[in-house]
Design goal:
Structural class: alpha+beta
Shape: globular
Distance between the termini: 33 Å
CATH topology of the largest domain: paralog of FGE (formylglycine-generating enzyme)
CATH architecture of the largest domain: Alpha-Beta Complex
CATH class of the largest domain: Alpha Beta
Largest sheet: 4 strands, antiparallel
Number of domains: 2
């Protein structure tokens, strides 16, 4: 057992498991070095029982944020079919998502030694995994009895996108109809037609790789991806384009998982 102080927290490292307060973080098989373990644990900050990830690329979505979305939706009149779909899903999401969650606003990376997700600006964005494996990695990322990591659902992602529209970070036209004005799409002004690293593609104040990778999510009992990647056209594959996977066991070279932390106890 090794104990080390990091940011005021006592870190206990015992073989392949790290404990920080109430949290237990799985690192790898027995024999993983303390130095590499600390590199992983540096991504975590605990404040009592509240798990704050804003500094590491997560955004908190609570009742206040849902109220902002609800107010926007009441005053919104769709002008296109895609905007109508977005509004309908947003309405359903407001009815079903009655819990707090935190959603990743930078693309995930995967430690090749451990196989576990981490978030770090400038790291290579994880791709080439199947939706099923993304689900596995997402649920393994973090759990402490109060927050549980998982792959985002369509309702959660839609609320996050609707919040950005409601706050003026995006326009509804950009989300639903034509996303070629920004992001890493091939026809965007700043598009480079190759995959950028995590945190390097910013649109409207958040560097979550819009137009860089497709976002893998859960949609009811199936898997889907939303949006396009760096060789897609933002005009024809805008941010809120939804495609269901026919097979969830096949790798997707162009997509990364969208990770959330759900509040498991109020």
């Amino acid at each position: 057992m090794t104990k080390i102080e990091v940011n005021g927290n006592t870190i206990e490292i015992d073989k392949a498991v790290i404990k920080v307060g109430e949290a237990t973080i799985k690192i790898s098989d027995e024999g993983f070095s303390v130095e590499d373990a600390l590199g992983e644990v540096a991504h975590y900050q605990l404040n009592g029982y509240r798990f704050e990830m804003a500094q590491q690329g997560f955004f908190f979505m609570g009742q206040h944020e849902r109220d902002i979305v609800e107010k926007w939706l009441k005053g919104f009149t769709p002008k296109t079919v895609q905007q109508q779909i977005f509004a309908e899903v947003t309405g359903r999401a407001l009815e079903t998502v009655d819990y707090d969650f935190q959603i990743s606003c930078i693309e995930p990376s995967v430690n090749p030694k451990t196989g576990y997700i981490y978030f770090s600006e400038g790291s290579e964005v994880a791709r080439k995994y199947s939706p099923e494996h993304w689900k596995y990695m997402a649920t393994e990322y973090f759990s402490n009895g109060f927050w549980q990591s998982d792959l985002a659902t369509l309702n959660e992602l839609t609320l996050w996108y609707a919040y950005r529209v409601a706050r003026g970070y995006w326009t509804i036209e950009y989300v639903c109809d034509d996303s070629s004005s920004a992001g890493n799409y091939r026809d965007s002004p700043d598009g480079v037609r190759v995959f950028t690293r995590a945190g390097k593609t910013e649109v409207g104040g958040f560097a979550d790789g819009i137009g860089n990778t497709r976002k893998i999510i859960k949609n009811k009992r199936k898997y889907a991806y939303v949006g396009g990647y760096c060789r897609d056209s933002g005009k024809y594959v805008p941010v809120y384009t939804l495609h269901q996977y026919e097979r969830s066991d096949l790798t997707d070279d162009y997509a990364s998982g969208k990770i959330v932390l759900r509040r498991t106890e109020k």
